[in-house]
Amino acid sequence: MGSKLRKFSPGGCFSYVYLIVLSILCLFPLLWLLVSAFKSSSEMLANPTAIFPKEWTLENFKTVLVTLKFTVNIKNSLIVALSTTVIATFISALAAYGIVRFFPKLGNVMTKVLITTYMFPSIMLVIPYATVMSVLHLTNTRISLVLVYMSFSVPYAVWMLVGFFKTVPIDIEEAGRIDGGNRFQVFTKLVLPLVRPGVVSTAIYVFINAWNEFLYALLLISSSDKMALSVAVKTLEGADIMNWGSMMAASAIVVLPSIIFFCFIQNKIAGGLADGAVK
C-alpha cells in the first residue's frame, strides 16, 4: 500500500510558506553578494540594485587572485583554520570525555568555569596575548594565531561536547572493555562514533571562528606574506577609489570556504548516531 496523502492543514501550509519566505530573506544577502562578484565595477555603480548582471565576468576574481595575490592570504587562513580545527576538536573531545567519565560530580562546575572565559571581550586580552607571544618569540607567526584561537575555541568546544558525551551509555563502554578493548580503543571506536554529530558541529564552529577572525590576525601578523584573508579584504577599503567588484569577489572568497566546509561534512552530523553500538 502506498503512503496515504497527508490531509490539508491551513496551519501546516502557513508554516511552510512562512519558512520558505524566511529562508529566502536569509539567503538573499548571500546570493546577492555571490552574484555581484560576477558584475563589472561600472555596471555595479550604474545600477547597484540590479540582481543579475547584464554581462557575467570573471575579471573581479582574476584581479583579486592574480593581481592582488589573495591566493597567499587564502593559504594562510586555511593553514591556521584547519590546524586550529583539528587540534582544538581533538583536545576538546578528550577533555569532555575525561570530565564526564572521571569527574562526573565536578563536571558541571568545571564546564561552567570554562564557559565563563567568554564573559570577557577579546579586545581585553590583546595586550596579554601580545606580551606572551613576544616572550615566546612567536609574534608574526601562524603558530601564534593557532594558539590564540585554540584558547578561545577549546573552552566552548568542551562545554558543547560534555552534553553529547553524557548521552553515551556506560554499558556500551563496559561491553567494549569486556571484548578486550583498552580505554583509548573504546573511546575512538565506540564513543566517538556515537557523538559524531557533536564533534562535527564543534569542528564547524571552530573552523568558522578561526577563518573569520580579524582582530588578532591584524595585531599579531605584520608580514604581508603571512596575512590572513580577513585582514587582506579589509585592506581593500583603504584604496582611494573603492573597487566594488574586487570587494565583492574578495568577500565571496571569504564566505565560500565556510559554506563548502559545512556542505562537505554536514552528512556526518545526522549519520551514524548508533554506529559505535553496532560495532
Mean pLDDT: 82
| First-last Cα distance | 34 Å
Main structural class:
mainly alpha
Q: Describe the sheet with the most strands.
A: none
- Beta percentage is under 5%
Unreliable segments of 5+ consecutive residues: 271-279
Quaternary organisation of the protein chains:
single chain
Helix coverage percent: over 70%
User: Measured on Cα atoms, how large is the radius of gyration?
Assistant: 23 Å
Total helical elements: 15
How many beta-strand segments?
0
Topology as H/E string? HHHHHHHHHHHHHHH
Shape field: globular
Pfam family, one: BPD_transp_1
Domain ABC transmembrane type-1: 74-265
Keywords: Cell membrane, Membrane, Transmembrane, Transmembrane helix, Transport
Protein name: Carbohydrate ABC transporter permease
Give short descriptive properties of this protein:
single chain; mainly alpha; 71% helix; globular
SSE diagram, text form:
Layout: H1 10-36, H2 41-46, H3 59-67, H4 70-102, H5 107-115, H6 126-135, H7 142-165, H8 170-178, H9 183-194, H10 196-212, H11 215-220, H12 229-235, H13 244-265, H14 267-270, H15 275-278
Helix pairs in contact: 3-13, 4-7, 4-10, 5-7, 7-10, 8-9, 10-13
In brief:
The chain contains 15 helices and no strands.
Describe the 3D structure:
- By secondary structure, this protein is mainly alpha-helical.
- The protein has 15 helices and no strands.
- It has helices at residues 10-36, 41-46, 59-67, 70-102, 107-115, 126-135, 142-165, 170-178, 183-194, 196-212, 215-220, 229-235, 244-265, 267-270, 275-278.
- Residues 271-279 have low confidence and may be disordered.
